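for the recovery benchmark. tokens below, seq after
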């Protein structure tokens, strides 16, 4: 009887030791640099930005967009101004300068290049590499005729 009891205790202790060893090994195998890099990043959004499309001094329509971006939280603490302001302003500037006059028939903007230009411009103005990536959350073009129809309905 005592022999069975001792055998049961030894079995329980060896099972618990094996589980503890496996958990400890798995915890030490994680790469701390990868987790630290991921935990330092934060996804943020800009407000809606309306960019007029002009030709010969006349408004042809508006591009309405909202952007998401990934920011480094450590570098966010260094800046007194949130980067969403810079990203929104840089988006306005980039789209205003590069948008074709005829959005429907014009060439499609290369979104990858636009996002990279917004990221680079915002980081240059902030003074640190805060913005890591820029993504388009929403994008719409409203022509002058669309705006007039909407106003007539209201």
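predicted aa per position
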């Amino acid at each position: 009887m005592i022999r069975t009891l001792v055998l049961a205790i030894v079995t329980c202790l060896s099972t618990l030791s094996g589980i503890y060893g496996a958990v400890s090994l798995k915890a030490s195998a994680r790469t701390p640099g990868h987790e630290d890099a991921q935990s330092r990043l934060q996804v943020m959004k800009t407000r809606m930005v309306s960019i007029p499309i002009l030709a010969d001094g006349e408004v042809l329509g508006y591009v309405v967009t909202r952007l998401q971006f990934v920011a480094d939280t450590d570098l966010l603490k260094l800046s007194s101004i949130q980067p969403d302001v810079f990203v929104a302003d840089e988006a306005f500037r980039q789209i205003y300068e590069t948008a074709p006059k005829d959005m429907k028939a014009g060439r499609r903007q290369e979104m990858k290049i636009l996002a990279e230009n917004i990221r680079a411009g915002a980081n240059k103005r902030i003074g640190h590499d805060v913005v890591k990536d820029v993504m388009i959350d929403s994008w719409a073009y409203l022509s002058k005729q669309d705006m007039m129809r909407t106003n007539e309905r209201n």
